[in-house]
Amino acid sequence: MELERAAAVLQALAHPVRLRILEGLLSGECCVGNMVQCLDLPQPLVSRHLAILRDAGILESTADGRQRHYRVVSPVVSAVLASVLAGCEE
């Protein structure tokens, strides 16, 4: 069961847009509208990537009126991202 959970997390991380989202969220929570501007991507696409990360247990969100704020809740994301990026340096 642990390996299946690990595989689901890694699968959720395995997309450049989701990695960019996580890189930004590691410095603090953010609303979807700001992410859309920073990523220069359509809102439905950003929301879809956020849903994948949320479904994998990596993110949580809270509603503030019409805005939804996302934050990283998985304690391993920072370490995994740092490790992967370090392995990609040449």
CATH fold descriptor: Arc Repressor Mutant, subunit A
At CATH's second level, what is the architecture? Answer: Orthogonal Bundle
The coarse silhouette is globular
Please outline the major beta sheet.
3 strands, antiparallel
Distance between the termini: 35 Å
Low-pLDDT sequence parts:
none
Structural overview:
- The chain is an alpha+beta fold.
- It has one domain (2-88): Winged helix-like DNA-binding domain superfamily/Winged helix DNA-binding domain (Arc Repressor Mutant, subunit A).
- 61% of the residues lie in helices and 16% in strands.
- It has helices at 2-13, 16-25, 32-39, 43-55, 77-88; strands at 30-31, 59-64, 67-72.
- It has a three-stranded antiparallel β-sheet.
- Strand 2 and strand 3 form a beta hairpin.
- It starts with a helix and ends with a helix.
Detail the topology: elements first, then pairings.
Blueprint: H1 2-13, H2 16-25, E1 30-31, H3 32-39, H4 43-55, E2 59-64, E3 67-72, H5 77-88
Antiparallel strand pairs: 1-3, 2-3
Salient structural properties:
90 residues, alpha+beta, Arc Repressor Mutant, subunit A
In short:
With 90 residues, the protein is α+β, with helices and mostly antiparallel strands.
